[in-house]
Amino acid sequence: xxxxxxxxSGQPSTEGHPTLEQTSGIPGGRATIIDVAAAxxxxxxxxxxxxxxxxxxxxxxxxxxxxEAERLAYRPSRFGRGLVTGGDHQLxxxxxxxxxxxxxxxxxxxxxxxAEQGWNVMLADVDLASDADxxxxxxxxxxxxxxxxxxxxxxxxxxLLGTVPMVELDPYSEPQTAAVWIDPADAIEVLADHLxxxxxxxxxxxxxxxxxxxxxxxxxxxxxLRRRGYLPDLVHGAHGTAECGAEETTRILGRKxxxxxxxxxxxxxxxxxxxxxxxxxxxxxxxxxxxxVDGLPLGALVAPTLTTLAVDLDAVAREALxxxxxxxAGELPLQGATVQRTVRHSLLLRESA
Amino acid sequence: xxxxxxxxSGQPSTEGHPTLEQTSGIPGGRATIIDVAAAxxxxxxxxxxxxxxxxxxxxxxxxxxxxEAERLAYRPSRFGRGLVTGGDHQLxxxxxxxxxxxxxxxxxxxxxxxAEQGWNVMLADVDLASDADxxxxxxxxxxxxxxxxxxxxxxxxxxLLGTVPMVELDPYSEPQTAAVWIDPADAIEVLADHLxxxxxxxxxxxxxxxxxxxxxxxxxxxxxLRRRGYLPDLVHGAHGTAECGAEETTRILGRKxxxxxxxxxxxxxxxxxxxxxxxxxxxxxxxxxxxxVDGLPLGALVAPTLTTLAVDLDAVAREALxxxxxxxAGELPLQGATVQRTVRHSLLLRESA
DNA sequence: CTGAAAGCGCTTACAG
DNA sequence: CTGAAAGCGCTTACAG
Lengths: 353, 353
Fold this sequence. Notes:
Two copies of one chain form a homodimer. The first copy, chain A, has 13 helices and twelve strands. Chain A is of the alpha/beta class. In chain A, the strands form two sheets. A six-stranded parallel β-sheet of chain A has the order 2-1-3-4-5-11, sandwiched between helices. The first copy, chain A, has a six-stranded mixed β-sheet with strand order 7-6-8-9-10-12, with helices on both faces. In chain A, helix 2 (33-40) crosses helix 4 (59-71) and helix 6 (102-116) crosses helix 13. Chain A is elongated, with a radius of gyration of 27 Å. Chains A and B meet through helix 1, helix 5, helix 6, strand 2 and helix 7 of A and helix 1, helix 5, helix 6, strand 2 and helix 7 of B. Chain A binds a DNA duplex through residues 32-34, 42-46, 48-49, 52, 55-58, 61, 76-77, 79-86.
């Protein structure tokens, strides 16, 4: 069995291939059904019949029409067709960075549920986008409803989306629209109790936030620990990535003597923490206990496996889609009164704590 | 700082909220610009001016129109608008399973590049989809060009996509359309040499395929090893997941005495291999060397870090988009003669081999 | 500041 | 088997 042929690679066999305009003579650039009809000497609806494999057309005519269509590189306009057929339902999903494993996990949950209901999904990754505002606006123009992470830009994006209904995921403060809260508070209490029981003395919270700021999640962790008599350190990691988690951990380990637990903002950062501990010869959970947040399957693949505050992302997707479809059906208000749902984390004990 | 409010959770405050039809009196269900114009007692283009924030409208009229629009839950049709404005460029991306970390890695590369050029991306995950065929057809109806993994269903999907140009990623055999090969052949040769140099004697290839089948990639590995005098075992894992990699490894380790290298079909399976080795007390790379394919960043987070055949997914995205845009611009043929590009893997030595 | 007219590209009845 | 007519919902000139 040989590898793929290499003759064509990097050297397309089409040098000097004439452009569409040159071959077709269509001045506007793109052929319409009128152009094809004229070229084939038939009416518009005969072209429709040929293109869509409908009945009521002779084999000869069909063949002639299809040949002209191909010659003119004719592709029916999705707008023209959608206008008359109504088109499919289209869901917009705004996410932050597909390279963070949390994102595809959420996206796949939304995607699966949407597909079951016959909805298509358009994705906007506002972290990867060169121009997030334009991207969000374009998303709104192409979709019937938008779900997603809006963060601090939500007011601006609410404007850009115009009349498109919106469901915010994990709002950072009281939302103006429909929203699904993802609430770690209960799980953090359970976790804090667990740390007490296992004899932890000097926990550190590794947040994902600017140095002068603290995330809601980080604040909840610190508060839960304080109420149990701890004096937790709060460390601000700038990026929510494994690299950042690793760097901060190396710094912490170099500085603190008596540290015996690290609560990371999310699983990905926690994986970085584990890596740093491993390299520093710090035993987890023997010397230091490590906990993440999110419940990514990934956490079960590392050694030690990662204890985490897990979210049921299928539930998040279900609630979000429920709100979105309810708004579209007119059963829920589009604006003004906000409708909210909550999905809570739960402590998933694995090996690292 | 308190957690999110819980008053509203699970108990929407909108019980008995009247439906759109009840409030608006629009029989068809959804209001159009005509309905709003009639309700506000103005013409259609005055409604357009109000909705789109255009000039040439008095504040009073604007306010009245917007109020009626909101009351009727009016949202402009994307088809009506697109027909006249032309609409945005829309790229369709067909992928296999977002939960496999390879997929978002590829998707994010495509996404970033597309966004730079002002394109939106619609995603179809044909593994998660309940009805993949319908999904692909819907994708074609909403997009200007489709890129993606088609596997063995490509002929059927080619039909479903109709006139929408298509770029196949990593075809399993000679494609009928434009395609980007992802070719591990060179890297496999380099890897095989490396295994020889490091004294490996009894390598096993852990493929992702049916028991009576072998993937191209697996076959290339076996062949490269044979040509160097090895008698490699070929194991068929059914799923290409970490779980599957782990299970098969446990089985292999239980059976084989002299195994000293495992070449996995992909990184995710290799992570399962590492996990199984760890649990069985088998040292990697001391007792067994482990290699994956894909070059996922994830492989740098585990212990030992994963040696792998890496692909430059940015290059894959670049080639694929180049072909797609070339076809749309009429610079490349849409059908018939196929245009192909190739991106090659390269050996990325980390700790596991 | 406002509206009557034309048209975007397609499909769906309806006649022949 | 084929075509003339109407219409999907919107925006873009153009007149007033």
